[in-house]
Automatic annotation (TrEMBL):
This is Glycosyl transferase. It comes from Paenibacillus contaminans. It holds the Pfam family Glycos_transf_2. GO terms for molecular function: transferase activity. Residues 5-132 form the Glycosyltransferase 2-like domain. Coiled coil: none annotated. InterPro entries: Glyco_trans_2-like, Nucleotide-diphossugar_trans, TPR-like_helical_dom_sf. CDD domains: Beta4Glucosyltransferase. Keywords: Transferase.
Length: 362
């Protein structure tokens, strides 16, 4: 059976670190925490779980901090989490089983990351990340911001989910790091430029962000998943500026990188729905419902587009087309995902009330 060192970097995480560490209690063999400058009660909370806490002077470099935390690990494998991540009970069981059964020839294990949630607690953004690695391989982190763990060898994709429980946003922290790097004359990689554009977008510097996204796409510079996301971000910016034709162009350009993704199908469906071009809207929304989400992909996914959203939009489309049984059927599919959604319940009541002979109230 493998042994696991949990390695973390933290700062002012008193609101979340206790839940994180409690969620892995009994699963990991040692806990290593690198504190990058906490001024709250983070350290005292951590010490109730481990005495392996070390201080590290912050140098605007997440990869450097994570690599330093790995340096203190002594077990056969390293697991990394952020202070606002947890393992839910089902995933605790899966990790315990993995710990007992993992083949010695596996170099890295990926886990699903549930990153964001809607008002009902259902996942809206998910992705996959390397989470558990063989320590002896010496895998390293790269990138000052939005760092990534470079791995090689045999990689196993697990069904374990790490759940993100963010309580506070970091504001412009990451943007400031990028801009200090540029002020110091550093050259950003294509990956850094992509994430710099994302930070610019999140902080509403849309024109500057759009210029970077366009440059990445025009030069085909970067990972295909990043270029796909760039298409979506550009479409968002164009729509916000009222340039619907340019938004459509960028949505269609996403097909250059992969078969249609549900996110772009829903975007196209919405465009045609707004224009009351219902047959075209139905085509794109229906395609979104028929696609299989690429579970092994490392890109970001808007889970709403792969689950309930196209169904509720198809309900609207079919209602306007006068096909009330299809409208009801798709609304029921949406209700399976969001049973308490007021819009879904309103649609249900409307259809059952207007056509009681077709849809007897349930």
């Amino acid at each position: 059976m493998i042994t696991i060192s949990l390695c973390m970097i933290v700062k002012n995480a008193e609101d979340t670190i206790g839940d994180c560490l409690a969620s892995v209690r009994g699963l990991v063999d040692e806990i290593v925490v690198l504190d990058t400058g906490s001024t709250d009660s983070t350290e005292s909370i951590v010490r109730s779980y481990t005495d392996r806490i070390y201080r590290f002077a912050w140098i605007d470099d997440f990869a450097a901090a994570r690599n330093e935390s790995f340096r203190y690990a002594s077990c056969s494998h390293i697991l990394w989490l952020d202070a606002d991540d947890v393992l839910l009970e089902e995933d605790r069981g899966k990790l315990l089983e993995l710990k007992q059964t993992l083949s010695p020839d596996v170099d890295s294990v990926t886990m699903i990351y549930h990153y964001a949630f809607d008002e009902y607690g259902r996942v809206t953004v998910s992705l996959r990340r390397n989470r558990l690695i063989k320590r002896e391989n010496g895998f390293r982190w790269h990138g000052a911001v939005h760092e990534y763990l470079a791995v090689s060898g045999k990689i196993e994709d697990s069904g374990i989910v790490v759940t993100h429980k963010r309580r506070h946003r970091q504001g412009g922290r990451n943007l400031a790091i990028f801009e200090r790097k540029l002020e110091n004359g550093e050259t950003l990689t294509s990956r850094d430029r992509f994430y710099y554009a994302n930070e610019l977008t999140d902080n509403r510097h849309y024109e500057k962000a759009a210029a970077i996204y366009r440059e990445l796409i025009e030069k085909n510079d970067g990972w295909s998943e990043d270029l796909l996301t760039s298409c979506g971000r550009l479409a968002d910016i164009c729509e916000a500026e009222g340039d619907d034709e340019e938004a459509l162009r960028w949505a269609l350009h996403s097909f250059a990188y992969d078969i249609p993704r549900a996110e772009f199908c829903c975007r196209l469906g919405y465009r045609f729905l707004q224009e009351n071009r219902l047959t075209q809207a139905v085509y794109w929304y229906k395609l979104a419902t028929e696609l299989r989400k690429p579970e092994q992909s490392w890109g970001f996914f808007n889970d709403a587009c792969w689950t309930w959203l196209p169904h509720i939009q198809l309900c609207i489309c079919y209602y306007r087309l006068g096909d009330y049984p299809e409208a009801y059927r798709h609304n029921e599919k949406a209700r399976a995902y969001r049973p308490d959604d007021p819009a879904v319940l309103s649609n249900k009541a409307l259809l059952e009330g207007a056509f009681p002979h077709v849809f007897p109230p349930s």
